Amino acid sequence: MLILKIFVFVTSAIYACIAKNIILIVADDLDVVLDGMTPLSSTRKYIGEQGVTFKNAFAAVPICCPNRGSILTGRYQHNHKIFNNSLEGGCYSQTWRAGYEKNTFATILKNRMNYNTFYAGKYLNQISITISWHQY
Fold first, then answer.
1. Are the C-beta atoms of residues 133 and 106 closer than 8 Å to each other?
2. Has residue 136 been placed in a domain?
3. What is the distance between the alpha carbons of residues 112 and 51, in angstroms, rounded to a whole number?
4. 42 in any annotated domain
5. Catalytic residue, candidates 17, 64, 65, 91
6. Is 91 a catalytic residue?
7. Which of 48, 81, 96, 117 is 20 to 30 A from 123 in CA distance terms?
8. pTM of this structure
């Protein structure tokens, strides 16, 4: 049993040293046709020119809150029950808070893989404080 505990400790320590950072940037209304990126010169400079720009991208749902729910859970809209940007439509509803939020990728990274998590900006339209993040 002692050997198993030592193995788990050493494995966890090694994993903590080699774990990669994850940065996910989610933004709304930045399409080229409507010039959504025009006012964001620093974003274009540091991410678009020095990072990556997708020429052909898709959204699970073309509405803010349901799409963020899909990104956070990996589920389609009919599975996470966020149908529009209102509380009545599931956006940060009791159903979300009691169930789906407990299984977002951030919650899994935080609780099961010991990542420090941080979130800035709009979460699901209604509120920014969640169980998924160490800092917000």
1. yes
2. no
3. 29
4. yes
5. 64
6. no
7. 48
8. 0.70
The two three-digit tokens of residue 1, written as one number? 């049993």
Residue 28's nearest CA partner among 13, 14, 40 is 40
- Structural domain contains residue 4: no
Instruction: Please name the residue that has the structure tokens 């950072």.
Output: 21
Q: How many separate domains does the chain show?
A: 1
Whose tokens are 């990072």? That residue is 51
Residue 75 lies in a domain: yes
| Residue 107 belongs to domain spanning | 14-111
Tokens of 69: 């729910």
Structural element, H or E, at residue 2: helix 2-18
- The sign one gets for the Cα dihedral 120, 121, 125, 127 is positive
Instruction: List the chain pLDDT tens, one digit each, 136 residues.
Output: 555 455 555 556 566 666 678 888 777 777 777 787 788 888 888 877 887 777 777 778 888 889 888 988 999 999 988 898 888 888 888 888 888 888 888 888 888 888 888 887 777 776 655 667 766 6
